[in-house]
Write a structure and sequence with these properties.
- Helix content is about 40%, strand content about 20%.
- By secondary structure, the protein is α/β, with parallel strands linked by helices.
- This is NmrA-like domain-containing protein.
- It comes from Adineta steineri.
């Protein structure tokens, strides 16, 4: 799979855990095969910082259910670190998107998430 592009959707990329994961992804030996999209609240400084790293900023929040679902449906890997334990709607949106991806191509996806 290293020769194909891997679409990764990351939430919480500007936070402590998500930022550490993003750093790890950007330092990975196969980073050139990654297309990383990060959900970013509309703060211009955050958006510019993420974009300067070669990451695609996707403006939204955990309440942007249509955005979460669409991004998840287009990703091979979803890493959800902006979640809180009681934010069930954002998790449902991501799972709905992943289910759409599975239904469309029959392939499994990877969805680790952090629950506080």
């Amino acid at each position: 799979m290293s020769s194909k592009q891997i679409n990764i959707f990351l939430t919480g990329a500007t936070g402590y855990i998500g930022g550490s994961i993003l750093t790890g992804l950007l330092q990975h030996p196969n980073v050139s095969t990654f297309k990383i999209t990060a959900l970013i609240r509309g703060d211009e400084n955050r958006v510019n910082k993420i974009a300067s790293l070669g990451v695609i900023p996707l403006i939204g929040s955990n309440e942007s259910h249509d955005i979460l679902e669409k991004a998840a449906s287009e990703s091979h890997v979803v890493i959800h670190t902006s979640n809180s334990a009681d934010d069930i709607p954002s998790v449902k949106s991501i799972l709905s998107g992943l289910n759409k991806r599975i239904q469309a191509n029959g392939k499994s996806v990877i969805y680790p998430f952090e629950s506080r």
